[in-house]
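re: that complex we talked abt at group meeting.

here r the seqs, copy pasted straight from the sheet so there may be weird spacing, ignore it
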Amino acid sequence: GENVEQHPSTLSVQEGDSAVIKCTYSDSASNYFPWYKQELGKRPQLIIDIRSNVGEKKDQRIAVTLNKTAKHFSLHITETQPEDSAVYFCAASRSNDYKLSFGAGTTVTVRA
Amino acid sequence: KAGVTQTPRYLIKTRGQQVTLSCSPISGHRSVSWYQQTPGQGLQFLFEYFSETQRNKGNFPGRFSGRQFSNSRSEMNVSTLELGDSALYLCASSSGQGEHEQYFGPGTRLTVT
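got the structure back, here u go
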């Protein structure tokens, strides 16, 4: 089955700096890659996703890049703010499959 | 549109008992997936239902089962509860037809004592 690895497990950044989280996947048939943000005690919230026919996608301060050849994708958060502090999960699934395989998560702390 | 709802939000059960959790998806969504979240194992896929049929299943023992009703609401059942079943159980709603975005409910926190 699919194996998604996520790094780093924790990330501390100064407010205003950028944060980058990287994920690798094993199943070459995976072609949908969402990112979720989970604040303490809250549900995972879909923040951005990318499909394999796209190399990069941006939404305001967040962007995701995908390298299908290398089987890795990354989340970039620019101009970090305290409200960006949360656990971020990457995930992967196949096109006709709603089974999401998740990375272990990255705890991001934005220092004021 | 109302979001995904789950009931109950919290449950405390004893080993050996069984439990039923409920999930109501976003109106118009026909796919419901269930996930187990624990500090040690992270988020793990249990199963997915679409139009009352189980389309996919994760690697969990047969004690974990589910079903979906004609109105797309879904239930999952865990029988013969074990201490290790203590977790946050999340369901996720999706259209199930080409659109892959999954939206999570608030979860049910199950504690087995």
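couple things i noticed - The longest strand of chain A covers residues 30-38. The mean pLDDT of chain A is 96.
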